[in-house]
Design a protein that fits this description.
five-stranded mixed sheet, about 40% helix, four-stranded parallel sheet, alpha/beta, globular, 2 domains, TIM Barrel, about 400 residues
Length: about 400
């Protein structure tokens, strides 16, 4: 472990003094990158105009260097992952978002809605190896607050060591409406039942003109932000996301980031930002831009620079694939998500990322970049330096907190 870093330093990666640890700007950097460095090192956030300059700057390597510098000033050479499993409770959804290859109508031959016993049994297959279950799904027309209270409380009793990260903002909104209760009441009851954090999914692009085209009927941009605001106020942390390369402009991507940054200034409740490109699939969005690997790396790097108050940037390997996710760790990302074990949404959308990945493989991906692999819990409050050993049966965790 770096001599200048302790577990406390990892935990304090969001502290303001990360700016003081920024290295000097490279004399060869282009003006847009140097301008970004000056702003960040002076305690300022980047403007939308500065973000557009970075998107237009041909020297991607320089942008990546600055993003990596910011990441290193927060966390040194540490990169995070966790042991988790994704379980989608249902693919039945009352909406039909154009970009979604996951949802099914109630009468579709491959529609499913897992009852609580089935859900619990599924967790049981992985319970000895994970400390988080990540659950999102469709907007089931019949499942109100009582169903999810019973689900979460049952999981919490059976597997108290497993953190429940579940339900996107639109799912929370749907449950509250179906149950005729306020969003805040819905969140408080779910928290009491065992819900511990929210994923960030469903943000797509926080621009209502874009949402009207790609996800008509979902929550508005302000509703997404308000649901996360309320969650943060009652002590439920969350992640936030951005699905890019559908039909949005770069300016709309940057405005999306700034909206998240402004809410973070108010609540400090966002743990991690997860930018991921739209994958070509069989959904009904033929006019999607799609993103090259270069555009994806640029967006990840710029998100690190724009979101100066959200500590973690995730290279979501379920979407990016292992190779691009590994490369993203040199463009400002500091987190790989986790072992996942099973996943439907991204794979139905076209992902070919393998699911038979254990901690050794994740550790190797991280070490390939010259970084130190750190296993974390869901909410980034417990950390262990991960040590790959040969043979794998002897691998261990060296505890640092």
């Amino acid at each position: 472990m770096d001599s200048n870093w302790s577990s406390d330093a990892i935990l304090a990666g969001s502290a303001r003094d990360w700016r003081k640890r920024l290295q000097k700007a490279d004399d060869d950097w282009p003006e847009a990158v140097r301008e970004a460095w000056v702003a960040l090192s002076s305690g300022n956030s980047l403007s939308l105009e500065q973000g557009l300059k970075l998107y237009a700057e041909p020297d991607l390597a320089a942008i990546g260097e600055l993003a990596s510098m910011v990441k290193n000033s927060r966390f040194g050479t540490h990169v995070f992952f966790n042991s988790n499993v994704h379980i989608n409770q249902t693919n039945i959804c009352v909406l039909a978002c154009k970009f979604c290859a996951f949802r099914r109508g109630r009468n579709s031959k491959d529609a499913y809605a897992k009852d609580i016993e089935t859900y619990l049994a599924e967790i049981g297959h992985f319970a000895d190896h994970v400390d988080e279950v990540h659950s999102v799904g469709g907007l089931h027309p019949d499942w109100g607050i009582e169903h999810y209270e019973e689900l979460f409380s049952t999981v919490n009793i059976a597997y108290p060591h497993i953190h429940i990260k579940a339900l996107t903002a639109v799912e929370i909104q749907h449950i509250s409406r179906l149950s005729d209760i306020s969003i805040e009441t819905c969140l408080m009851r779910l928290k009491k039942a065992g819900l511990s954090s929210l994923p960030g999914g469903g943000a797509e692009i926080l621009d209502d003109k874009i949402r009207e085209v790609i996800c008509r009927g979902k929550e508005s941009s302000e509703e997404y932000l308000e649901i996360h605001r309320l969650a943060h106020r009652i002590g439920i942390p969350s992640n936030c996301t951005m699905l890019f390369a559908t039909i949005e402009s770069r300016e709309q991507r940057l405005a999306h980031m700034i909206s998240l940054r402004e809410l973070q200034r108010e609540t400090s409740g966002f743990q991690c930002f997860v930018p991921y490109p739209f994958l070509p699939d069989d959904s009904r969005l033929p006019d999607a831009q799609l993103a090259t690997g270069v555009e994806t790396l640029r967006t990840i790097a710029i998100s690190r620079l724009m979101l100066d108050n959200i500590p973690h940037i995730k290279a979501y390997r379920m979407n990016l694939g292992d190779s691009l996710a590994e490369l993203a760790l040199s463009y400002g990302a500091d987190d790989l998500d986790g072992t996942v074990h099973q996943e439907s949404i991204m794979h139905l959308a076209g992902s070919v990322t393998p699911l038979d990945v254990d901690r050794n493989i994740l550790g190797k991906i991280i070490e390939n970049t010259g970084a130190i692999a750190v296993q974390r819990n869901t909410i980034y409050t417990s950390f262990s330096i991960f040590v790959n050993e040969d043979p794998p049966s002897l691998r261990r965790l060296q505890m640092v907190s």
